[in-house]
Amino acid sequence: MPFKAGLELTELQNMTVPEDDNISNDSNDFTEVENGQINSKFISDRESRRSLTNSHLEKKKCDEYIPGTTSLGMSVFNLSNAIMGSGILGLAFALANTGILLFLLLLVSVTLLSIYSIYLLLVCAKETGCMVYEKLGEQVFGTPGKIIIFGSTSLQNIGAMLSYLFIVKNELPSAIKFLMGKEENFWEWYVDGRILVVTVTFGIILPLCLLKNLGYLGYTSGFSLSCMVFFLVVVIYKKFQISCGIPELNATSSILSNSSAHEHMCKPKYVIFNSKTVYALPTIAFAFVCHPSVLPIYSELKDRSQKKMQLVSNNSFFAMFVMYFMTAIFGYLTFYDDVQSDLLHKYQSKDDILILTVRLAVIVAVILTVPVLFFTVRSSLFELARKTKFDLYRHVLVTLVLLVIINLLVIFIPTMKDIFGVVGVTSANMLIFILPSSLYLKITQQDGSKLTQRIWASLFLALGIMFSLVSIPLVIYDWVQSGASAEGH
Fold this sequence. Notes:
The chain is mainly alpha-helical and 489 residues long. It has helices spanning 9-14, 40-62, 72-83, 91-96, 100-128, 133-141, 143-180, 193-209, 220-239, 253-257, 259-265, 280-288, 291-300, 306-335, 353-384, 392-412, 416-443, 451-482; strands at residues 33-34, 37-38. It has one domain (72-482): Amino acid/polyamine transporter I. It has a two-stranded antiparallel ribbon with strand order 1-2. The N and C termini lie far apart (57 Å).
């Protein structure tokens, strides 16, 4: 039986279950046998109290109540930090393949739907007392629920690591060429992005991942958010500095000589449908996923309540909505149809200290963020296998195997849009749409007072399923059509 919202914790703690069935009381309501007839009201009251007490015991088994210490403002910062990621680099590409109006509609829709999914997740946490996503899944659906949530969160984190290492693969060669004083078309094996990403992984990231705990690396997430804010400022500034179609943007001489073609290329479009439009929604969904971090942030919130955490969620998503839209619109209005799935890569760092600075800042930020995500995936894997006791041999072996697999994927995946597409239609869809609504429907299935909310949650679940059924085939179709061809970088 789920908890009733109006029942205080202190009332539950003071509530006791009668050990002796033959309870006597001055009131006839609490006489078990009255004139040879069983008093049904007594049984009802007794069973109700036993049910509530048992429910409280189950809640305590899931997570002990520990008061939070984080302020509302800092919680907003932490959740904003959890939302912000490499997805911001692909939003201008999504806009270029949907048009301004359609992109804005999708961005608003995903923002509101994400806020609603957080609401469902918070209700589930309140009803069960679970503050860990995997524990919540296990509490509601048993071991299959725990495995599904583990798979979804791990795939999301692996997708984020892939996108971060893809940034290293794309951006580090350009930064090194600039520092060497070489042209952008300079080519040697030591400026090959594939070699550089492997070198960075096993020279910097591997030693950090082998540490027993992260410690100070937890603070690098704040630096990462600062880098993305700096990136947004540069994108806005460059919009007014770079003219559309200039030679530095790789525009061909034929386009420059043809004024009508040039005018068409530099004219904003409001609604677009093409083969790449299918990547827009997964990319936006990928950019807004923060659900694995919601419950830990909720548990740390001072004087926490569902209403207070919902306020944190609303403020964080609104801030990220503004930041995402500004990055996408100014990036698009700088390069128009020539924008790439990695917006940062479009800016040439030749003789531009500002671009070099933001490029190096983002590279350092993502390099230091990868171990944080890696620790989460590895810890979840050990938890799932029930191998929580530290073992050095297993620790090193699993770390090496996972990093090798991730590097192979980074080397052979052609573009970031493929990462955003795959993760967006799989784990992001599960975490935003399917899992919160499924958990909510299961928990409230016996609560007739929440019929209206269950209808909305059912529609939300149906939307997530429809999103998968439509997006996954379209992404596969685009792969088949485009073959192994990749964007030129």
